Structure formats: C-alpha cells, structure tokens
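Can anyone check this?
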Amino acid sequence: MASIANGQEAIELFQGQALLYMNMFGFLKSMCLKWAVQQGIADIIHNHAKPITLPELVSTLQVPPSRASFVQRLMRFLAHNGIFAIIHESKEGHEAYALTPASKLLSKACSDHCLSPIVKMSTDPVLMNKFHQLGDWICGEIPTLYEAALGKPVWEFLEETPAYMSLFNEAMAGDSQMVDLALKNCSSVFEGLDSIVDVGGGTGTTAKIISEAFPKLNCVVFDLPQVVANLSGNNNLSYVGGDMFQSIPQADAILV
C-alpha cells in the first residue's frame, strides 16, 4: 500500500511540475506573437496569395540560413496556438503556412479590424515592466502598477512620450473597431437611450462608430484634456476634456 501511495504522490508531483512549467513559460505565446507582428508575417502570407512554404518565408524575411530552423519552430508553435495553419504540400514535401481568423486580424490588408497595434502595445517591454512590480506594489502604497514601474501615472508618461501616446491611441482605435462588428448584432443595447458618454474614449473611434450607427443618439467622448484637445465632433458627437476621478458628463449610459 505504501508503494501505491508513493507512486500516486509522484504522479501528483509531476503533474504539479507540468502545471508550473506551463505557467512559467506562458510568456512564450505573447513573445512569439510579437515576433510575428514585428516581422509582418500575416501581411507576407496575404501578399503571397496562397500558403507560403518555409523556404519562401525564410527568403522573404531575409533570414540567415542558420536561423531557418528557428523560423520553422516559431511558425509551428504559432500554428499550434491557432495563429497560423500548417498546410502540407505534396510536390516538394515542404510545409506551408496559411492565415487563420486570428492572423487575419494582424493584417490591415485583409481585415478592417487590425489588432497588430494592441499586440505591439501589450508586448512592449517598457509597458510590460509593470507586471514585474506586482510584489512591491501589493505590499506598498503606490496607487497603480504603472506608477510602480514608470515612477509616474500612465497618463503622465504617455503625455511626456509622444511615441507611446501614438502607440496607445492606435492600439485603442484598433481594438475599438471590433465594436463595429458587435453593433451589427447588438443594436438593441442602445434602444431607449438619448445620450451616452464614452469615459476614457481616446480619439473617439468607438463613439464615432456608435454615432454613425445611431444618428439620434448623442455621444460624448470624455478623456484627458490633452487627448481630446484638437479633436472635433459632428452633430451627435462631441469631445469633453476632464478627469474621470473628479466628475463625468451626465448621460443616460456610460461606456468604459
């Protein structure tokens, strides 16, 4: 009986180890996705007009021959996670890579809803550094993770670094484009509303989509003054600058 118990304990320990390692190396998914976006893999496959073989992809990327096997490993890993699909060609025996619904969202050429900017923002080393501060932040008095990592509120950081502000706005705009798809099937959400305020609405991508879909609905984009300073609205779309922690413009509904 003791040997059975010991054997069961060993199995549980190995299962625990597997779970720990899976979580420990979970970052590889986002890093490989970042690589694919940086290299423009989705656009390359789209422009190729058919599944692209490994030699063709390596040639297009101008990867040194010594790195070709690493490209294959990365593409197989991404395919395993549903980002690309592997097509086995019969003529020369080369495997080829095709787009999936996920990777189509990484190319502006084949989708009106490109999410590459938000991938770039979410995997940026400066912005990701906040997650390395979880321990100190939990035990300290610093208000937010961003302040723990950057030494200042994220909005102050973005205002002082135009490149990151541009990246942030582009990422939010791309993410907001997905709202357009939701509106086609969920228009009932806005029934009975005369006004709505988009808190932290950035440059107003989401509000513009809503205002165009519902011309009788008054839409207000509410964000920091420096974000909306040079933006102009239309008949049912307006921009208001302020601090959401102080007050929010009145409306029938709030979008956050």
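Reply from J.R.: I decoded it. The mean pLDDT is 89.
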